[in-house]
Amino acid sequence: MTHTRILVTGGAGFIGSHYVRTLLGPSGPPDVSVTVLDKMTYAASSSSLDPVRGSDRFALAIADICDPVETGRLVAEHDQVVHFAAESHVDRSISDSAEFVRTNVLGTHVLVDAAHRHGIETFVHVSTDEVYGSISTGSTAETTPLSPNSPYAASKAASDLIALSYHRTHGTDVRVTRCSNNYGHHQFPEKLIPLFVTNLLDGKNVPLYGDGLNIRDWLHIDDHVRGIELVRTGGRPGEVYNIGGGTELTNRELTHLLLEACGASHDRIEYVTDRKGHDLRYSVDWSKSHAELGYTPRKNFVEGLAETVAWYRDNRDWWESLRERAALPAEENVVGAPAC
Ligand code: NAD
Ligand code: TYD
């Protein structure tokens, strides 16, 4: 049997760790081994990888994707790359975008360049629907021109274009995924759902931006990971695949569901100053992923949300220290990262 060595960048983060636990779990393919390449920024959680730490098909390399020497060495030892590593929180990109440009743009360039030089079989670049910008009606297809608004979205759009340029120029097998807003267990408590749930569990209020009428499409982490695996194993080189969740809600509607799930009253909502340049709505058309790869989101949102709330209720140990960490500046939160 052919054995595939996969380098997973950002594998200690929310989605990357779920991908790794799934690949090396009981339903994962038997013929893969995984090395996580992660800088262990404030957003990483070492314990999210505990379930796979004992596997002889798992290794962890603490490194920065912007470091060409270490990244090149690791890429050379692998057959495929699945690239999650990024600065991922829009609000942080508004207060300071330098690290977003460094990791998301420069880091992706270092990685895809190494992939090209070492003849990597397949490079899956995990991106976001935010690169298409805000749309008030309809859904964005893979062919929709990019129109990112936040520094986060702009840095992801730049990274998509750099990655795809290596396919067009050098023939590197690059595949890009663009998903909607993920939710589920092990998500760092700064994004809406885990922030609001942990606030409510701690008896605090929840800060709803502006009028709360911005719309997001919610994608369960299991569906996203399945979509990425379909792209890695069955996607076509040089192609982009949208991965949607199928549940569009205003932030206000979502907050009411969260209040209900946590048994909290409506007076816990605190309407606060809106996010600068706040995108009104994202919605991806995932019919290409469905037609080519058989992708369909399966998780019922109400069930998925109830399971997520229950997980945070039962796993305080996981998130309490992360909440303290979230308050610190990024440079105080990095473990063992070489300079770029
Ligand atoms: P996350 O913030 O939870 O994790 C990011 C991981 O990348 C962390 O483990 C961090 O330590 C690592 N990292 C950051 N900078 C690094 C560097 N320079 N070198 C090596 N590792 C580095 O992010 P997430 O929510 O899991 O998102 C993963 C990917 O999915 C990102 O590329 C993000 O843009 C994309 N995405 C996320 C969502 C979402 O809803 N969370 C939606 C669309 C797309
Ligand atoms: P977020 O989880 O940060 O994801 P993204 O900005 O990438 O979509 O935010 C989801 C939505 O929730 C977005 O419209 C902003 C809003 N929001 C709040 O209203 N309050 C908050 O404290 C946060 C973090 C987000």
From TrEMBL:
Residues 7-308 form the NAD(P)-binding domain. The keyword NAD applies. It catalyses: dTDP-alpha-D-glucose = dTDP-4-dehydro-6-deoxy-alpha-D-glucose + H2O. Pfam families: GDP_Man_Dehyd. It comes from the Bacteria. GO terms for molecular function: dTDP-glucose 4,6-dehydratase activity. Gene3D superfamilies: NAD(P)-binding Rossmann-like Domain, UDP-galactose 4-epimerase, domain 1. It is an enzyme of class 4 (lyase). One of its GO terms (biological process) is nucleotide-sugar metabolic process. InterPro entries: dTDP_Gluc_deHydtase, NAD(P)-bd_dom, NAD(P)-bd_dom_sf. This is dTDP-glucose 4,6-dehydratase. It comes from Streptantibioticus silvisoli.
